[in-house]
Amino acid sequence: MSxxxxxxxxxxxxxxxxxxxxxxxxxxxxxxxxxEAARRVDVVTTATFGPMCSSGALINVGHPSPRIKMSxxxxxxxxxxxxxxxxxxxxxxxxxxxxxxxxxVFPGAFTYGGGHVIEDLVSGKxxxxxxxxxxxxxxxxxxxxTAVSLKTVNSATLMNPRNGYQNYNVAVNTGAERPIYTYxxxxxxxxxxxxxxxxxxxxxxxxxxxxRTIGIGTRIxxxxxxxxxxxxxxxxxxxxxxxxxxVPRGGAATMALVGDLRGMSPRYLRGVSIxxxxxxxxxxxxxxxxxxxxxxAVFTSVRDGDIFAPVVDYGKAYPENxxxxxxxxxxxxxxxxxxxxxxxxxxxxxxxxxxxxREIAAELKTWIARGRFLLGQPxxxxxxxxxxxxLRKLEVRR
Amino acid sequence: xxxxxxxxxxxxxxVDEPLVSRVIRDCDVEVNILQASVTPEEDGHMFVIFKGEPxxxxxxLDFLKERGVRAILPVKNLVRDEExxxxxxxxxxxxxxxxxxxxxxTCQVVFDxxxxxxxxxxxxxCGYGAVESVSDHLKRTGxxx
Lengths: 398, 145
Hints:
The structure holds 2 protein chains of 2 kinds.
Chain A: H1 5-13, E1 19-21, H2 22-32, H3 34-40, E2 43-51, E3 56-60, E4 72-75, E5 78-80, E6 88-92, H4 114-122, E7 127-132, E8 143-148, E9 155-163, E10 170-172, E11 180-182, E12 185-187, E13 193-196, E14 215-216, E15 219-222, E16 225-232, E17 255-260, E18 269-274, E19 278-290, H5 294-299, E20 308-313, E21 327-330, H6 331-335, E22 338-341, E23 344-350, H7 354-369, E24 380-381
Parallel strand pairs in A: 1-2, 10-20, 13-23
Antiparallel strand pairs in A: 2-19, 3-6, 3-9, 4-5, 4-7, 7-8, 9-17, 11-12, 14-24, 15-16, 15-19, 16-17, 18-19, 20-21, 22-23
Chain B: E1 2-10, H1 19-27, E2 30-37, E3 44-52, H2 54-67, E4 70-72, E5 78-80, H3 90-94, E6 100-102, E7 109-111, H4 122-125, E8 131-133, H5 134-144
């Protein structure tokens, strides 16, 4: 027996839908079996919360009198891309103020950047806009300096080109000399620690490994508000190796996400300062998965022990882009606090907040159970394992 | 009598209120102000040492919380800002003395001050500014206001 999106939405509207979190679904399937679970459960909520560098905000600040066509703009000193129409800017999460010392004194602290400006905006704070233009007949103004906030701008849209990676690397440093500072945190030499970044069994794309229900048009929880999947994310690479359960054994699918910054919350949208690396934005994402049939019940019953991530040396293999993998470990091992690599016990730490992912899954469950949030049926599927879409390397040709 | 160092963060609407006087007078707690930045129209920050009976210090902290002041109690030169913490666990991986651990049930990061050896390796590991040294915290909040 199977259900359609429309049937499930009808049940949500009537307040009759059975909604459970991905965590709860594991036990329901273990208890009742996938067939019975599929009959009982309508929606499973999945979630993740972690630094997602490929994020940013598209803001239309409004036209001043006289008008300006901004060609350079900063928000609280952080440069935003202004190569768009007159008063549109795109503020990237990893952008840094011109005068940030960066890694001049290593490791740099990166105390404030694009991710923090976005957090300030969603916190309701005013930020200082400084912009200049070259002046035209229709846009005569050449300079502007003023304060803007989510209340004053015409629109502020969180528009993230790559979020919610389906699985990710576990980072170690096999070098003997010094600790290294990476986007996966501080890695001490001789493989003294390992860092990972995924919500594992709670993570959206790991619960829908073949993108049967998550696609273009899926309505989601984004940063505390409502958002949508609008395209496959950049570096979407669904054709890599998969385990028997269909789950990729390394980074695979990604999603491009969009949503109104108004209505989001700093609890789920946080600036991050990563020592020696730069700034980023931690994004909270929650995605409902409709249990259309028994297969979706099986997919959403996946556990940390059945999901494997590649261990990669960020001292050499990653920066030099050799593609070398030291081995695979499961998220159950990773979350236990230590993994075994090459016969050695290595302590682990997660950079993705499992606690906050659980909170988001529970929050989204409440939204749906109260009839406040309907499922968006994809208008187009994300390219899958059979698509032939591969990750290309950039060749240096001269 | 005990002593407790406390960082107080006042929202700007409270800057006009004589809160420290009330702590001294109503709660019978001595207050030694080590650093203060309290300016009209801006959020205020203060680093103080409370001295008094434990129950009275508890009353003082309750009173301040009730008025909307955020009090942070540093431990061994560390300021752990619970509101900034997202419970990712990056600190746990660097903490050799197991002062930072992840609670198995809640999946939240918990801090046991008694186990902390003040090595401060957690500070650069935290991307959210949820663990800072007292001096860095005062510098940052002072700059922000």
